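Handout for the seminar on molecular recognition.
Each group receives one record of this type.
Step one: identify the two inputs.
Step two: read the structure output and locate the region that could contact heme C.
Step three: write two sentences on what you found, then compare them with the reference statements printed after the record.
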Amino acid sequence: MKQICALLIAILLAACARSQTGAGDDWTNPGGDQGKTHFSRLDDINSENVTRLGFAWELRLDTTRGMEATPVVIDGVMVTSGVAGRVYALNAATGEEHWRFEPEIDPRVHRGTCCDMVNRGVAVKDGRVFVGALDGVLYALDLRTGRVLWRVDTIVDRNRAYSITGAPEVAGDVVIIGNGGAEFDVRGYVTAYDVRTGRERWRFYTVPRDPAQGPQESPDLEAALETWDPESRWDIGGGGTAWDTIHYDPEFNAVYVGVGNGGPYHVARRSPSGGENLYLCSIVALDPRTGRVKWHYQETPGDSWDYTATQPMVLTRLDINGESTPVLLHAPKNGFLYVIDRRNGRVIAANALVYMNWASGVDLATGRPNLTPETSNYALRPQIVFPTAAGARNWHPMAFSPETGLLYASVLDMGNLLFMSPGAKPHRVRALNNDAAIVFAGDILDVLPSLPPPVRAAVEASPELARVRNRPASQELRAIDPLTGRTVWSVPRAAWQDRAGVLATAGDLVFQGDLMGRLNAYDARDGRRLHTIETGTSILAAPMTYRVDGVQYVAVMAGWGGGGWSYVPRQSAAYERGNQNRILAFRLDGGATPVPDPLPPLEPAPAPPPQLAGTTPARIERGRDLFFGNCGICHSNQARSLLPDLRRMQRPTHDLFQEIVREGLYEANGMPGWSDLLSREDVDAIHAFLIEEQRRTRARELDLQRRGQPLDPPRATITSSN
Ligand code: HEC
């Protein structure tokens, strides 16, 4: 009897603790609840009846350019963000639009953004909607009308490649926002503004400035300066942009900021004598009133691998040695899953989720990783480093269920070849910090013959080459025990790019979309697939759920985009059916989901005009360099990419080439003008290169057509080099 009583009390206590986590009818921020667990207590839709889940409504969005946000729903109103910081407010039960906000942005800003023009969500508080636009302007909008209440330019230096793609975070009476740009030439920071007026309260720089400029802005930065070479490349900024997670914790009155990678990538180029380079790749706990550091934990000291710590965090409590312990769960790019004590930043557990060769583990006494430079320092020789710069995990939100005690996350087990690139490419926009060339694992064998001989020799001698040959990459949805990192169940994915955000619910369900445009529901306990809805639109963003008038809905923003956006994966719905973005909502006993039509088959490239007068092989070569240095970040020249394939230009486009490229004729459609950076002759050189490409493409495709073979390449490879 005593035992039964104890058991009952335990169950009641557990139920009590449970009711405090997770979202209810409302989903109040992109993470769902205060802990951003991406977990819902709703269970009207559950493992018993999820097969009845069907289409409720859709909103077609005004773009083909990529969705990463998780919507917010409060009192039956859905608010969410799209490309460049557009905001949509709609009736969450019907999809009917209340209002739409489109920030006015100079398209030239997009010349300095690495990874598309996505936005990861809004913050909503006390009748105000906060959104960061791509150009770095933070807006406060009226929740009822969408009217601008205030706007503030958050960018400290407009000559550098700052942008915003992350969601703002409200902490008491301030709203906090960071920025992106560490691939280029920026010094990262976050700024707090008064929620009512937009007045600046404080700013926290994540890395020190050139000591020659005088004292640092705070004692926290004076301390950080000790971990940098005084001769560091201060001119490039140092990096450390907080481009995604900023997380307020009212329990400990702290704001946890995930800090990004260093710039330039390799520490030897950034801070020649080495050093940890605080606060790169760290979680920094700030006091929301002052912006001062309460504690910090550096996950990747002396980063050289683009191991950002910006990935989403989950705040919860775990039972550790019989004590309910307030923890922060974090699985950043570097491959570890950390359990961190929120009271003091102490690392409780750090387990590798994937194969890695930059570190052999974390010393829990000091919190420091055991670095393994012999297999990861690519300043010594080209190295195949695990995990990849694309991240064992990235921005795609994970979910934590207090019911199962499991973390659900997409995990990528893949490496990449890294080597010091011989010199800066003629990228004219910014000093793109392209000291490192990156080749993703699946592409290494393909590009091997074309690599510079010393790089090729190093790759062929690498003991990791066999691993790449056997299994270039594995992408999985995993259920993970947070304290041990153990995989409880997993579902393999078709392509490494097939990673997406996750939702877990008290209905014993885990939801995740995929690249092929399917929304899948799994049993949270064993990973069994219970239901699939074919939407025909690629899904990367996290699904979410809410209840209006007693009806539970599951919603997701659909559309391919983000890092690597300019190459559309061959297997994707975006490749097959185009990429009209949509917000999709589902309910029990809903209808059939409208699926976009397949794109028409590819036609051979049209005949190009004659080559420009006076063109020499040297001009074409220069045009190639200028193209990859300036245009390649957006134009992949892949037939099915989201932008026009410039090997398939029609005659009128050729005729207008100078006007389009230099004068910005299509600026309204997002094609920036280049007259400030490229001369007439530069643009002619690019044009000459493209005419040559079009001529070759047409010849190849006519030949394929004659032989009755498909024109599409068998697979879209994603090779990035920056
Ligand atoms: C920041 C992204 C971005 C960059 C960088 C960029 N473009 Fe574009 N470009 C676009 C977009 C978006 C469009 C589509 C505009 C539209 O739909 O009308 C476009 C369209 C074009 C077109 C018209 C093609 C057609 O068939 O209609 C040309 C030509 C072009 N770009 C050339 C260039 C060149 C040359 C460069 C490098 C100097 C460049 N672009 C760099 C985004 C970019």
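Reference statements: The mean pLDDT is 93. The radius of gyration is 25 Å.
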